[in-house]
């Protein structure tokens, strides 16, 4: 769910739930009385809950069911579920500029700018005593000034998957270092088969993951640290991988879809846990996973922990009701959380206790992933926002693809990133 998954003809628009009844809400007054409205009149409050358009079948219906169940338990609060297609980030960003935006919505990141603008509100009371049942690593990027501004909905681990039969045929072992990964990719590249698929540009998430695996997270609190010999070294390794023409490029789908691995276009692929059911259906037990190996002696293996979180609009006219709803659904209701994570797609429930009880995560490649997350999971630093990292992304492209001088290019980019970061408010 963390990437732009394949879309299937899901329903558009929104649905309002009032005291157990679903009312199509494509326009007009959502509180208008209908034959389905209870005798006592419409609920006193209507919450608007925005979701991005998930790709897995059944997710929209599940979101509607959760809203209906909440309204049954809380008949004074109706919930209007809005399924937002297209460029969700642009749409929610515009919508929350005013009090007419969604009361509850989902995001990947929470920035200080969002906090300062009142687009989110503290949710410590929503997490309550159950806060200790959430991985601190997962909560950390959403914590500002000692307050937590989001409740995790799903965790999406991303790492390397591989075809066991192709490894066996080529006499390749699971790589234990980045140098071994490069050697394996070269050996596994034959004919139309490439050794590795990380993205259609030939680099993908490895632009950040490889430096992470060499012990540099690119940013340390409010200081840009990627102008560093460790990053230069990591990007030299990434350039070697790229120049060897071992990475698949220009495939019909991008890294988030496991098609390249399934179809044998690549022997290894950077992809997320969400792809496991599709790979299992297509490949049986002919695949497994491993973290991105440590780059060098001072590095570490890396599993990237993505995901979606729930926030409450600080401008909402119904803050208390919105918090009540979020707590009911994303903190207390572990059955719904497990259903949301594992009944339609394949993700990790964010509450540690719920994940531990999820049978689907206790065997095969899923267990490999869960073990790797426990040992090597890394969450993107909160201030590594799209704006801050853009100069770095441009620098990596210049270094890896165009042969630009790495020290000079990173130094210049780091100054631009730092200038942008310095403008982010301090909380």
From TrEMBL:
Give start-end of the signal peptide.
1-24
The cross-references to SUPFAM superfamilies, in alphabetical order and at most eight, read: Periplasmic binding protein-like II
Question: Which keywords, in A-to-Z order, does the entry hold?
Answer: Signal
One Pfam family assigned to this protein is: SBP_bac_1
Q: Which InterPro entries match?
A: Bact_solute-bd_prot1, SBP, TAT_signal
Recorded protein name is Sugar ABC transporter substrate-binding protein
User: What are the leading ranks of the lineage?
Assistant: Bacteria, Bacillati, Actinomycetota, Actinomycetes, Streptosporangiales
């Amino acid at each position: 769910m963390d990437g732009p998954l394949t879309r299937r003809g899901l329903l558009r628009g929104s649905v309002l739930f009032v005291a157990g009844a679903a009312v199509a809400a494509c326009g007009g007054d959502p509180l208008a009385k209908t034959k389905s409205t209870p005798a006592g009149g419409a609920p006193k409050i209507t919450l608007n809950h925005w979701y991005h358009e998930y790709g897995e079948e059944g997710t929209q219906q599940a979101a509607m069911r959760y809203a209906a169940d909440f309204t049954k338990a809380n008949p004074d609060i109706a919930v209007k579920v809005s399924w937002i297609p297209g460029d969700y980030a642009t749409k929610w960003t515009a919508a929350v500029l005013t009090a007419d935006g969604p009361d509850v919505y989902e995001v990947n990141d929470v920035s200080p700018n969002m906090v300062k603008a009142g687009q989110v509100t503290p949710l410590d009371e929503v997490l309550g005593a159950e806060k200790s049942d959430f991985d601190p690593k997962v909560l950390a990027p959403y914590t500002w000034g000692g307050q937590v501004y989001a409740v995790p909905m799903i965790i999406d681990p991303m790492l390397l998957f591989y075809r066991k039969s192709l490894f066996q045929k080529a006499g390749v072992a699971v790589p234990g270092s980045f140098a071994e990964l490069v050697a394996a990719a070269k050996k596994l590249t034959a004919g139309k088969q490439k050794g590795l698929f990380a993205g259609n540009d030939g680099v993908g998430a490895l632009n950040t993951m490889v430096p992470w695996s060499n012990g540099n997270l690119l940013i340390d609190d409010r200081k840009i640290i990627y102008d560093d010999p460790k990053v230069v070294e990591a990007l030299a390794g990434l350039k070697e991988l790229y120049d060897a023409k071992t990475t698949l490029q220009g495939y019909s789908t991008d890294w988030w879809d496991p098609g390249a691995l399934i179809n044998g276009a690549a022997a290894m692929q950077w992809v997320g846990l969400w792809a496991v059911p599709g790979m299992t259906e297509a490949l049986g037990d002919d695949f497994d996973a491993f973290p991105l190996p440590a780059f060098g002696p001072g590095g570490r293996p890396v599993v990237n922990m993505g995901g979606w979180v729930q926030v409450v609009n600080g401008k909402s006219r119904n803050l208390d009701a919105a918090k009540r709803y979020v707590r009911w659904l994303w903190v207390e209701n572990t059955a719904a959380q497990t259903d949301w994570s594992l009944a339609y797609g394949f993700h990790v429930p964010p509450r540690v206790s719920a994940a531990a009880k999820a049978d689907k995560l206790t065997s095969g490649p899923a267990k490999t992933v869960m073990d790797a997350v426990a040992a090597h999971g890394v969450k993107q630093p909160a201030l590594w926002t799209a704006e801050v990292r853009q100069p770095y992304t441009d620098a990596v492209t210049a270094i890896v693809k165009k042969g630009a001088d790495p020290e000079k290019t990173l130094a210049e980019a780091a100054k631009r990133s730092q200038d942008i970061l310095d403008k982010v408010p301090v909380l």
